[in-house]
Write a structure and sequence with these properties.
alpha+beta, Glutaredoxin, Glutathione S-transferase Yfyf (Class Pi), Chain A, domain 2, 4-stranded mixed sheet, 4 strands, 7% strand, globular, glutathione transferase activity, GST_C, Glutathione-S-Trfase_C-like, transferase
Length: 227
């Protein structure tokens, strides 16, 4: 049973979109949460103490006094439903709930297509952005562009946790050098997102990811040239 007098602990990596989605939720709800940095690219997620709590050794990871969650979508929904159940960040009617979940599932698609580009570089397997993977990602961005047309947010006429999940991914896409200018609706949505509490922290994480990505590309090229 969760002790409501104990504050939750979140392990996170600022460069990662799932972690930043949770951070955006925390900032918007003004929650008191203990934050622990856990950078997977430094293998900090393999620490035995962390793995004993989280066998998946992934971030974000929430420990709410013994209640553990490893999926960012589950974490953001849990935080809103338990800490601010009347919040407009989640749906309340059956249709609002269904549409929110629909967009969160879409976020998974967007995240994995972005990850297919970034992960090989960070792991030392790639030296650039493959055209086929970029094309695949652009097809999904075209859908997001339609979702946010005419001043809309991702899942409602106001921002919700669906925007908190999409924003970190899109800003990471920008940070690694992919062109976004063709998506006029997304660019306008990004401007609207500047009003969201935690936006600057998200931008900091995206910048860090861009720097890490570009650094790894140069390192991978040097290694390939020596081979």
């Amino acid at each position: 049973m969760v002790n409501k007098n104990m504050i939750p602990t979140l392990w996170y990596m600022l460069e990662g979109p799932p972690s930043r989605a949770v951070l955006l939720t925390i900032r918007n709800l003004r929650l008191d949460v203990k934050l622990k940095l856990c950078r997977t690219y430094l293998k900090e997620h393999l620490d035995p103490k962390f793995v004993s709590k989280n066998p998946l050794h992934t971030v974000p990871f929430l420990d709410d006094n013994g209640f553990h969650l490893t999926d960012s979508h589950a974490i953001t929904q849990y935080l809103v439903e338990t800490k601010a159940p009347a919040s407009t960040l989640i749906g309340h009617t059956p249709q609002e709930k269904a549409l929110l979940n629909d967009r969160l599932y879409f976020d998974n698609l967007l995240f994995h297509k972005t990850r297919a580009i970034i992960a090989p570089v960070l792991r030392g397997y790639a030296q650039d952005i493959p055209e086929d993977k970029a094309k695949d990602l652009h097809e999904t961005l075209e859908v997001l562009d339609m979702y946010v047309e005419n001043g809309k947010w991702v899942a409602n006429d106001h921002y919700t946790i669906a925007d908190f999940h999409a924003l970190p991914i899109v800003t990471n896409i920008q940070s690694i050098g992919m062109k976004m200018d063709r998506y006029h609706n997304i660019m306008e949505w990004l401007d609207r997102c500047r009003t969201i509490p935690g936006y600057d922290e998200n931008s900091e994480g995206a910048k860090a990811m861009g720097e890490l990505f570009k650094k790894k590309i140069e390192e991978n090229k040097k290694i390939a040239n020596k081979a």
